[in-house]
Amino acid sequence: MTATRRDPEAAASIEAAWRDGDQIGDAKSARHLGWLLYERGDLEGALEAFQRGDQRGDPECASRLGFMLRARGDHKGADAAFRRAQAGWRHGDAEAAYHIGEGLFMDGDLAGALAAWEYADEQGSAVAARRIGQYLSEERGHDDAMPRDAVGAASAFKRADERGDADGACNVGYALEKKGDIAGARSAFERAVDRGHDHAPFGLARMLEKLGDLVGAESALRMGIQRTEHLSSMNLWSPLYDLAKFLERHGDLDGAEAALRQAAEREAPSASFMLKRFLERNHRE
């Protein structure tokens, strides 16, 4: 579970509601409180919350409890908690089934993970549908570039998109772009952008450029650069290069040079070489 940015007052109100629910014996409130405390680093508090949720029959609390007990070296207690989780997720909610599926996947139980995700997907989980799509779109093997099930993956991403998932919308956009449906891909990428997807602005920029909206395309590229700035140290290709190429294609050589110089200042891979080639190609000093 990933921490979500919230207004401080709203976050305090949500936490208070979870604590109130936990006090009156609500299992899901104990689950969410456990996650909150875990993210804060309050491992004792989280452990106790998951224990309460487990005692109330919540399978995800049992699963989380299992991981925490395993980390503490209590393998007997962890195994018992995992058995309770695996026995109960089919009677739980979609959120619980999805997270249990993630735990099973990390433990190498692919069949169990898929079963849990499929159950969550059937219950309307957007993240479970997305996860199924990601799995089905992976290559079948290291020497086989074909996806496991391209049709199944597309269907899963479509379900995720329809349920409001950003990654699902972005993958629908990629599929429509590949089919040549530029208008449809644009709409899908716009949905993903509106939902906060980091990389969707680049797909949107490609579609807007093809549709002749150069102002919109440049704006989308700059948005993508801003959204992915925190990932720059992990990438071999800087998105500033995409902006530079776009500006050069459309005659804004000053803007392109500025983008490449910015990449060089950030010590992006090959930035100095690309800047040098750009200056030579365009006879600029």
Provide the CATH topology of the domain at 165-227.
Serine Threonine Protein Phosphatase 5, Tetratricopeptide repeat
- Contiguous low-pLDDT stretches (5 residues minimum) are 1-6
Overall pLDDT:
90
Give the C-level CATH assignment of the domain at 165-227.
Answer: Mainly Alpha
Biggest sheet record: 2 strands, antiparallel
Keywords:
285 residues; mainly alpha; Serine Threonine Protein Phosphatase 5, Tetratricopeptide repeat; elongated
Q: How do the strands and helices of this protein lay out in sequence?
A:
Blueprint lengths: L7 H16 L3 H14 L2 H13 L3 H13 L3 H14 L5 H13 L3 H13 L3 H12 L1 E3 L2 E4 L2 H13 L3 H14 L2 H13 L5 H11 L3 H14 L11 H11 L3 H13 L5 H11 L4
Antiparallel strand pairs: 1-2
Overview of this structure, please?
The protein has 285 residues and is an all-alpha fold. Among the domains are: 165-227, Serine Threonine Protein Phosphatase 5, Tetratricopeptide repeat (Alpha Horseshoe); 230-285. Helices cover 73% and strands 2% of the residues. It has 16 helices and two strands. The chain has helices at residues 8-23, 27-40, 43-55, 59-71, 75-88, 94-106, 110-122, 126-137, 150-162, 166-179, 182-194, 200-210, 214-227, 239-249, 253-265, 271-281; strands at residues 139-141, 144-147. Strands 1-2 form a two-stranded antiparallel sheet. The longest helix is centred in the first third of the chain and has 16 residues, at 8-23. The radius of gyration is 23 Å and the shape is elongated. The chain starts with 7 loop residues before the first helix and ends with a helix. Mean pLDDT is 90; it is low at 1-6.
